[in-house]
Amino acid sequence: MIFDLKTTGFRPHQGDEILSIGAVRVQGGIAGKEGRFHTLVQPVRPVPEEITLLTGITQEEASRAPEPADALERWLNYIGQSTLVAYGAGHDAAFIREALRKTWKSRLTHRIPDGWQIARCLHPDWPDHSLDSALQQYGIPIQNRHTADGDAWMTALLWERMLNVCRERSIHSLDQLYSALNQIRY
Fold it and tell me: What is the pTM of this model?
């Protein structure tokens, strides 16, 4: 399961919040275009102007969005017990964990491999491992960038291709992938 968030900033423990959640199922190594998940999330604080410029999410849209508890519950029902993958997973996981803590005093127990780290592992020769660069390296068109739905979809397409590279390198399980990731030198 691929997911992506858009947030009001970069500090979940200092009041920044989730603005939108996108997710895409990947089954059998194929991203499912049908049944994708997307929701806006109503923040407590106003949406910063620079975030509106980046994501296109306006204060008006955010004020009509589901409250965090409703959005999180729908997302949790969608993802079930799936392993989650995000590009730059530390950011997304920190926001989800903080939102779950605030909302229900609960924790996320899913494994969340980081697509950025996987790209570094599979392609140590690339000069840049940003999402834009990885998409370009794999020939994936960049569309709806900086939206949770768009970034989740493009990351799902990227994940399809990275899974093929993993298979070519005899990486067939999550444990084998984690083992390969543990050998990366930053």
Answer: 0.95
